[in-house]
Amino acid sequence: KTRYFSTAGSLNQDQPRLLIKAVQALPAAVSIIAAFDQDDAGDLLLEQIRKILCNLTVVDERPKVRGQDWNDVLRGRSLK
Fold first, then answer.
1. What dihedral angle (degrees, nearest 10) is formed by the CA atoms of 55, 56, 57, 61?
2. Which of 5, 27, 57, 79 is the most exposed place for a label (fewest CB within 10 A)?
3. Distance (Å, whole) CA 29 – CA 38
4. Are 59 and 34 in contact (CB under 8 A)?
5. Which DSSP symbol is given to 9?
6. d(CA 15, CA 19)
7. DSSP 5
8. CB count in 10 Å sphere of residue 3
9. Is residue 11 packed enough to be buried (19+ CB in 10 Å), middle (13-18) or exposed (0-12)?
């Protein structure tokens, strides 16, 4: 009941279309959770995803501390 969509750090030209197609295949009541890094690139990705999925609520679940990388947080490490 869970699907993951990886951007590998940024959106390429095909990913917006693929993301829309993936979301259209989901049930009506879904949660979209953005788990990007807490940095400028993460800010941009969150903005792009919210724009692409404008009809859906996108929950910002990024690390709480500016500059943190999600992989480091999940491993229990922090760069700051």
1. -130
2. 27
3. 27
4. yes
5. T
6. 6
7. -
8. 10
9. middle
The burial of 48, by beta-carbon neighbours within 10 Å (0-12 exposed, 13-18 middle, 19 or more buried), is given as middle
How many residues belong to the chain? 80
Residue that is written with structure tokens 């969509």 in the block = 5
Q: Determine contact, residues 63/37, Cβ cutoff 8 Å.
A: yes
In the chain, what percentage of residues exceed pLDDT 70? 94
Task: Give the residue carrying structure tokens 């999600």.
Answer: 70
What pTM did the predictor assign? Answer: 0.79
Cross-strand bridge partners of residue 58: 32
Cα three-residue angle 49-52-57, rounded to 5 degrees: 65
Question: DSSP string spanning 10-77?
Answer: S--SSHHHHHHHHHHTS-SS--EEE---SSHHHHHHHHHHHHHTTTS-EEE---SSTT--HHHHHTT-
